[in-house]
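quick one before i forget lol
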Amino acid sequence: ERVNAQRLALRHHLERHPSLEQQEELNECEEELIGSKLYTMFVTDIRDGVNSVVSAIMSLRLKYGEGYPIVVFVDYIQLFVKSGFSKREEIEDASRKLKLSALEFSVSVVAAAQVNRASASQAGEGAGDGMPRAYMLRDSGSLEQDADIVMMLNRPILQDEAAPPELMNILVELNRTGPSGKTLDVKFLPEFQQLR
């Protein structure tokens, strides 16, 4: 529903109580998405750990077959930590299992991750630009090691009050299949939860 609301540029507070006209637009958008043969899975409740996500990925691939693209969104990978395990070990295990599942089942996995706050507060000391960097990913270097692409989001207004409030930078820190080190400037629309 959220994806459809974003595609229609409905404000996020309207998606819970859309008007009749908006609901019709949402229904049409959902039919288009179903017809596109792209299956998306949003993982926000990961209390059962990474194994439940891997099982879901395997089930989806068996259900839809090889010709059906699947994208899995994990929000966010540090939530895989369970009591009794060190954060670093648990995140390394989750990162490795997601990577292996993506390769084995031909699935794209997009995993959100937190930045280490101490590193973030010192951001740019070496580079002098205040931008977040891949080495700042919290609790594990394996995230950077296992990823094919690492992109960082930056809100310039947090470092410079004179910056446009809607400006957001996407920094391509790692790209194993293309150029790295690029910065894309996009417009952040918080009322739609969109980047344009």
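fyi The chain has six helices and seven strands.
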